[in-house]
Amino acid sequence: MRKAFLVTLFLGATVAFAGNTYRVELFKPISVNGTQLKQGECKLQLIDNKVVFKQGKTTVEAPVKVEANGQKFLSTTVSVNEDTNQPNEIRLGGTNTKLLFESPAQNAKRADDAANGSK
Fold first, then answer.
1. Domain total for the chain?
2. Which of 26, 64, 111, 118 is the right S-S partner for 99, CB 3.0 to 4.6 Å?
3. Is the pTM of this model over 0.85?
């Protein structure tokens, strides 16, 4: 009985956790907060207004703005800034979720504002 309870608990936790985890195929290397992610598959976990990329032993997180689209996206797409190789947005296939990344200048301004105590 106890074993069945533990298996049920584990499966329930796995399903709950999997709700915010996605697999993304990168067709070229990208740079996220100074960390290079290679071409190929990576996991993407959405936690509040933060996205965590996991690829092999490499893990990097970045702030994002989460927006809901009117319709579900048919496939996952990653839009990348050609000059910096940093993601601009990710549209998650099968959902209506769009992740918008801030530019490095916006991240630097936010860090300066936080250090100076202003908004």
1. 1
2. 64
3. no
